[in-house]
Amino acid sequence: MNGGHTKRLDWSRLQLLTICFILSFLTLPLNAQNNKEVEKAMNKNKTLKQQIEALENDTTTLYNQIVENRRQLQQKKEKVKTLRAQNDAANHLSAEQITALQTAVDSLEKRNNILKTQYDSISKEKEKKYAELDGLNIKVSEMDMYSDIQLKQQYEQNQTLFSKRYSELDGKQVNNLAAHTADYKKMEGFAEYEKQVRFMQQNKTLYDECVSALNNKYDAVKVQQLRDQLEPLRVNKENKAQGFYKLNTAQFNEIDSIDIRLSRYKGGIRELQTIMKKVNNDPEIAKLRKEGKNRSECVKAIGKYVEKEATTRKKDWKNQSVVERYFNMVPYLDKAYKAYKHQLNANPFKTTDIEKEILSYEL
Hints:
By secondary structure, the protein is mainly alpha-helical. The protein has 3 domains: 3-159, Substrate Binding Domain Of Dnak, Chain:A, Domain 2, CATH 1.20.1270.60; 164-263, no CATH class; 265-359, no CATH class. The protein is built from 13 helices and no strands. It has helices spanning 3-24, 36-90, 95-159, 171-179, 190-215, 220-235, 249-263, 265-281, 283-291, 295-311, 322-325, 331-346, 353-359. Helix 4 (171-179) packs antiparallel against helix 5 (190-215), helix 6 (220-235) runs antiparallel to helix 7 and helix 12 (331-346) packs across helix 13.
């Protein structure tokens, strides 16, 4: 080995460090991460990095062995030279001793050649890995371009959600879309896209809160707050600068419908209370309950209010009944009404649990 080998090794190590540095910052863009080809390339990239590092360690070890071997060889050669000179002058050493020393020198030279061969072989292997890594980086670059296409397609697909009815949207999907809005900041029209995503998320959240309110116990304050928030959507006046976009017909009808349902919640509670009070205040029913004997007659008397009056259509309600106008519009009331009928049918002589709950509301 000479100074040239050292320079080549230093240059190889510099190249390796540079490549490793680049590899440590190599990332793949959004939407390609689930692609099998990208995952395969990333795994291959990692494997090559590990292989190159292992080869570097091997070449470093060999280089140190070669340096040490060369130092010992040089010492032996100098000793042989000195001993030969001394022997020539004083005839001091035997031929066997000189031969043994020369054999040691020859052995070191042979070992040095083997180490050089191993070093050159590993160096060539490293060069192959470098070439393979370069090819992989080109492949990853091509995948980046493919990923950009995927990103654009996803960007366009996301915008189709803006026209969907809020009942058709998945809340988690919308929230996830909003959380990753910045992923599309390089796309054309991003500023408006960002506003539309926020507008969609706000409306979806509001719609879900309205649905929840209709399915749970009546909360007058909450219902009014929700209706106040729905009002701008029902006006439906577009103002893009403030991030307000006009609803399409399907969306508007859905928002209008949910507002109507909320508006009938209080009236539905009142109607159900009225039915319950009529049942409780009816003299015939009171008598039958007191006697506690004739179940079928009691059920029949109760049905006059719970069944007949609740399902009688009224002209001033556009030919709708209490059930149609109120109970069918509010899931909580629909469930309460059905539970009330079921409990009375099971035991018409007993005050029902749902009755206590409904009559507790102060309207």
